[in-house]
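Kindly review both lines to help learners:
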Amino acid sequence: MTSDLKDAAMDARAPNATWQDDVRAGVRHVRDLAALPLSPAERAAAQEAAAAHKVRIPKPYLDLIDWNDPNDPIRAQVIPSPQELVATEGELDDPIGDHAFSPVPRLTHRHADRVLLFPTYQCAVYCRFCFRKESLTSIGRGYTREALEPALAYIAGHPEIREVILTGGDPLSLPDKALAEIRARIEALPHVRLLRIHTRVPVALPSRITAGLVATLQSRLLVTVVTHFNHPREVTGEAETACRTMRQAGFVLLNQSVLLKGVNDNVEVLEELCRELMYRLGVKPYYLHHGDLARGMAHRRTTIAEGQALVAELRARLSGICNPTYVIDLPDGGGKVPLAASHIEGRDGETWRIRGQDGVVRTYAELVTDL
């Protein structure tokens, strides 16, 4: 168990400590892959890939895998594949330009009113498609007060910052004590109004969402938790309990998914996922990310045209509140931009030609007068 998770385990108290067993019973090291029901060839390939990029899978997520299906969508997200070792020309170590916008260690300031803060570079689960996997492997360090001090000082010195986004690594892999320290430091800055947490813990290690953890994060700050469900099979009873605990604490829950070939590049799968997120978990589908140019992930990326077709069909099937925004995080720090195809077919002066959801193009004349 890593230092962050060890410290978190020491924080926990019965009866909310079952997550410790979930961590210990899962895959924590490359050598643990030997115990999985893989063929000798698969095991050798997986161990080679895991040596290049970290592997960790808590037992609740491991239990979701159908080992009889070599194309199982849960397996595809966490079991190392030899295809990860095949780099395609144009893939990047830092696909969205985090490092270029990092004025101090453990902080990215790409947009004026918000920053990314990296309390840890360790995760409860390591996703094979992660766009930060190069940093997680090369840096890999956990939380210390000293390491975070320059970043917190930077936030204190920039009153334009309204929102602090805890990311990493997974911030909820930290012990409650560390999270309490970070939250208190941020809460003490009067110009910061919102604390956002990006995490896969509710998906892969839902037992970690305890009453104590939630109490640790409550403050004058609005708290938004952005989860990362990619497939409807991840929406379990345990995940439902975790999300209910956070909702009842007043947290705003959003979800961002990654469009992954062989995992969720299917309109029926995405439709079920979005419905279950909203109607069962109370989590608003927020973003559907086009696959970033992370190294070794060409086999999991779809084309943009395929993504556009999927979200167009989703829009016809789902209510607005269930629809995520299809986005791409552009290289070199270009930020997230929407990718959905435009419904505007043309314009003649103040008359627009707009294609409806039924495919029929209609005219809309702008009728505007002065106040």
In short: Residues 3-22+86-340 form a domain with the TIM Barrel fold (CATH 3.20.20.70).
